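Support request, please re-run this one:
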Amino acid sequence: MKRRPFFYFLAVSIVVLLLTGIGGCYWLVRGSPLTLLQGGTQATPEAAIFVPKQAPVMVSILVNPDRLEKLRQAIARPKERRRSRLELDQIKTTLLANTGLDYRRDVQPWLGDEITVAVTTSDYDSDQYNGQQPGYLMALATKDAEKSREFLQLVFSKQAIAPTDLEFEDYKGVNLVYHKPHAQGESLQPSTRILSGAVVGDRFVLLANHPRVIKDAINNVQAPDLNLTTSSRYQQALSQLPPRRLGLAFLNLPGVISWQGLDTARTYESQIIALEANRKGLLTETTLLAASPQEVALTPELTEPVGALKYIPATSGLAIAGTDLSNLNNTALSKLWKQVAQISTSGYDAISRLINQPLANLQQRWGINLEEDIFSWVQGEYAIALLPHADTSTSDWIFVTEKSPATTEGISRLDTLARQRGYDITTLPLGDQKIAAWTQLTTAPLAKANSEAGAITIKAKVLGVHGSTDKYEILTTSVDAMDAAFKADQAGSLLNDAKFQASIEAIPQPNAGYVYLDWTTTQSLLERQLPALKLVEVIAKPLFDNLRSLSVSSYGSEPGLLKGGVFFRLNE
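Re-run finished. Output below.
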């Protein structure tokens, strides 16, 4: 049977265990997350001393997975406790399949409070004749150096075909073990498998895909100016984050571009991402550092929620609120989005569809270009919302914008576009308000039970509606949606909704506004529009099982920095 790369299993385990931990934090936030964060959880990855300054990527979990599991087991009800234990055991068994290793027997006794994985270089040997050979390094904190040495011997003995396949070397006081060539003259082939390992002092187990990667890691410790901890950009990025985290990732974006072989301009040079917990959910914060402070324009920030939200019903499933859409292409967020699109097409596409697909449907429905025909004249506050119908299979849109000298001309242009599509502008009363509807008369035969054969009925098809208040212009896709917008302030608006307030509570102020998604309201609708979303739900099942809403925002006004966060509000 072909052996599956053990390094692959360990690397994937970080992602899976972190996702499991995120789900487990549901139980933490119901109890006391401070129990987790006090007395042992470190602020920064200690293994960064092994990682070179120019490393493309470093990802760290800063808490032992078993600590998350123990807290979850302590808080969970008996039935949930058994299910939780079975799920985690199944994950660990799958990750170590075909390796001959057992997590509880071989890993759990010595694993400490940090697991760090890094792509240390895009080409560890700089040999143009063998192509690009990325270096992969994993550092696992150990609380029992002797047991971790036993683990290392076990790993290599199970991978070796014969004892003579292993090479032992003393390098600057550290004992290395690695696979040597199987035949005379054969070189050590590049791989993502573990081909080298070492226990450094009594603190870390190092695993890598080539002995040179571990030797470079040891050099980084002994020559401190080489390692990531002495990088000014890394330290600057760390300083922007809260002191206690469950995990973090640091990306050197020029290194990522080189590693992936991309040819792209860049606005940002570094990015750091951190995960933290509070009583209501999980906050993922990120900071990006620009190559030059002058390249990033500061985004207008608000000290309180957007007033336009008072016309958005509390039942809305998706809402986007902020200020000044007319300058969208020149904002820091827009420049970041373009850079992400160039670096990771698949990742950009997935995120883009999740956020933009509903807006694309509206754009198609109205036959307009949102950016040119609406966003270009929105200079003040705005709020865009998706309003699901009772059956959740269809939905309406509400768009609210603060009045400005440009809004009258903008609404007039929309009326012109509607006429070009064959619609009339009809003025209608709606309560105490007057509204204008884009209508088109259509004919259809009446049912025989209700009329004579051949009789027809005339219906008015409504494409969209617009109305106004003393301060805001409102656009909707139906008369019912306009009625809901006018009544929202009295019937219950998103601005005063307790669920919405709980979802933005963890987001720092001032900020540039919010993207708010009520998962419980929009889950079925989004799943129909984005079938791939169901796969994501399976992978991150503990998170989605307990997710109530998520909120996204950007904030921070320092030149050259873009800060933002995503808050996952979980069941209480």
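Residues 1-40, 183-188, 343-351 have pLDDT under 50 and may be disordered. Residues 537 and 571 are 16 Å apart (CA to CA).
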